[in-house]
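Complex record, four chains
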Amino acid sequence: MAQHDNTLKSVDKVFKMVEHLKTNGGKTVTELSQELDMPKSTVQVYLNTLAKNKFVVQNGATYQIGLQFLQYGMYALWNEPVFPNVKSKVEELADTTGELAACFVEELGEAVYVYGTEGNRAIRTDLTMGDRSGLHCTASGKAIFAHLSQERIEEIISQRSLERKTPQTITDPDELREELKQIRERGHAYSKEESVEGMRSVAAPILLDGEVVCSISLAGPANRFVGERFTSEVPDIVKGAANEIELKLTYSESGL
Amino acid sequence: MAQHDNTLKSVDKVFKMVEHLKTNGGKTVTELSQELDMPKSTVQVYLNTLAKNKFVVQNGATYQIGLQFLQYGMYALWNEPVFPNVKSKVEELADTTGELAACFVEELGEAVYVYGTEGNRAIRTDLTMGDRSGLHCTASGKAIFAHLSQERIEEIISQRSLERKTPQTITDPDELREELKQIRERGHAYSKEESVEGMRSVAAPILLDGEVVCSISLAGPANRFVGERFTSEVPDIVKGAANEIELKLTYSESGL
DNA sequence: CATTTTGTTCAACAATATTGAACTAAGACG
DNA sequence: CGTCTTAGTTCAATATTGTTGAACAAAATG
């Protein structure tokens, strides 16, 4: 541990406990005590504190993550002024194409999945709102990545490892820089099975005053995302939708 | 303050700070210091801790609630085994009726709004997933309330005040007990502008092994929810949907 | 460039988190 | 039934850690 990390250790431990409950499901006092290597009495105090604040809920003898988190998470979501517009447009995209439409936001150098809807023939993913991944391995992530400032791009490349998800994932920094350049020229990003095998997608950034606020994407099975459809039809649909959102945003912004 | 409240004070304060950020939007160190009456250096340590755990995000000089909450909130949601079934059925209800369809869950004696979809002519509400309200003032709340154990009902009535939301809200315990009895006999609950003026709704509980797990509801403007439609048509639709969910649940449960 | 404001660092001190031991409650078992 | 076992709870001493102002750095303001 570093000398001065300037953090509250008890709070760190509280979050560690919450994480443990998320990963391992509901637990009793004794289980937590053993698994986290803390005395029972300490666990009790922690759970009392979490329960008092509704972040953890007692169900008989077991404690679980509470719905209180949802309230704060939803606040963070709706706090982004783009969100309402993006949400309805994503739903429209899923409806008209039948594929999986989604929206990602950048936070702390990661892509966060904030909304998605499945069209009637969409592929199924196990993505849940709030899930995070590297910016380098999805179309949505790359669409955002490409439009960050040059310094921020280099900062993120140097700080985060370009983790390999599939054989197609771009893990070489130089290759990534070239890819981002192409995305800026093209106006949209592709993923050719770079995060999930068998899944391809197309994403476009949403820019407001030159700043990227999020990206929207369409994803589908590799066999449907080929040829003309993949290289021009789907990109046009996605970019069109992104454009409409941008227009609504600038309109509503000036209309204040 | 009580003698021994057996809670971690620093953690309580962390949550207080998060709550402040939710209520008042992004804040700087100095603002928080003034508004929460804490020294700047203390605020700093708190924000460092929250930021390190991604629950708060620094945006220039201001700190905001982070999307990390979303991940835990979503976990809590999907942790309920009913949720996937309920979600699709609620969407179906909104589609076929054009009204506002929603699902509520009980937690800590409160109704928590966990999912909702607006049909094409639905009334607009400012409800956000994760919002909480008393069990006594909505159709969804009462539908759940009525099917809790008798002891739990009395416990909740005695511990929580039956807060008045509109002139129609039931605030008298005896009146509420009678209402709950009728709901049990009828199989569904009504709200006649008891939480929001001009809004009526119909809700049905979803029971699994005799335990109520959540409720689903349809809400609409008072002028559309009248006569035959309000007393039999909508209730039949809602109860039908609830039944289908119950069947799917018992089926998938035994199928394990 | 001077001035004010805001953010950050640090080490001493006070506060509080931590702990085991003692206690109670609930189940298991014969 | 009563004993044994296991799980949950309480509490007061101690050591750890949270808290703080003061001093510094950085940025914004005039």
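Note: Residues 109 and 156 of chain A are 6 Å apart (CA to CA).
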